[in-house]
Amino acid sequence: MGDFRHRLKTPIAGLALVTSGLLAVSCSTGTGTGTAAPGASGGGSSAPAIPAPEIKISPVKGASKVRPDKSVVVTASNGELQEVTVQAGGRSVKGEFDSGHTKWTSKAPLKPSSNYTVSAKASGDGGPAEASSSFTTLKPSEELRIRDITPNRKGETVGVGMPIMVTFNHAVGDKKAVEESLEVTAQKPVAGAWRWINDALAIYRPAKYWPAHQKVKFVARLEGVRAGKDMYGVKNYATTMKIGAAWVSSVNTRTHQMVVRKDGKVIQKMAISAGKATSREYTTTNGVHLTMERGNPVTMISPGKKEGDPGYYKEIVNHAVRISNSGEYVHSAPWSVGSQGRANVSHGCVNARPDQARWFYDNFHRGDVVTIVGTNRALEWNNGWGFWQLSFKQWKKGSALKA
Asked: Is there a catalytic annotation at residue 27?
């Protein structure tokens, strides 16, 4: 019996060694942390592996000719996004995470003809994860740019009636998309709206005159905006205009008087002579005019007539301030001093004695208001800067944004 017991112990001990080896192998096939999953029995069964987060990026890696108006989207499964960076030329693209931090979406158009890199980090129970990608945006067949912004003169102060006029280098197909990229902010905010005058010109006007003594900023975030078939904005723009005092001049062609107010206070009264009204051409226009430009001197020639024709004239006038595109100015007229304050004898302009015309010339700003009453010819809203001839309700009908 003793020999039997001794021999029996040896195989049992060997069996124990084999079992121990199996347990060691079982532990090595788990998560890699060396920790068994909760609830695992001591009998040696293993928990399934917890997958690491999976990150997906769109546009796909290596994509070319990506539309600039396409969003960059980064998603994570089996975890949460911790960080997303999208860059081109050292500039980062803004974006937002969803409420669960499993999705990130860019919030601004991309720049055309640019190389973008994307990097993302995520974390989850299965550990951290990282991903990166790159793609290239397309080169548009037509590049939309702004050819001119008025006003945009360095150091210029403008009047309370001044519009913002934006001229593009191409006819805009998708006016809504482009208009949505245009932003006007004022230190003293007022309602306003854009109106498309034609396919390449948009003009912004407030509902009422700008509050005086403030700055107004215009920004065009055109970069990446799809403006039409194969046309994208390629550059952003920004400018600031300074609104000065409220200069408002009131002209009455019947009493032959002009009264100039600054911030509501009368600072000048001028005897004037207006258009003699023997024809429509020689009739001063009624309505709200804006001062546009000035010249000293300005040569005025009868429109549509040549020398020798009846009614032909060619006159050189000093200190002339334009108020329409149909040839109307406020200007000096020493030859009409005897009629100023008494009769209308001009070809349609508002003229005054030399010293007062020079004073007006020296003090005007582009966008100051000149309101004229007393005639039977209305200023057309698109004659010069006659935009205030439209009510704000009428003006807004020219916007591409119907809301």
From this structure: no
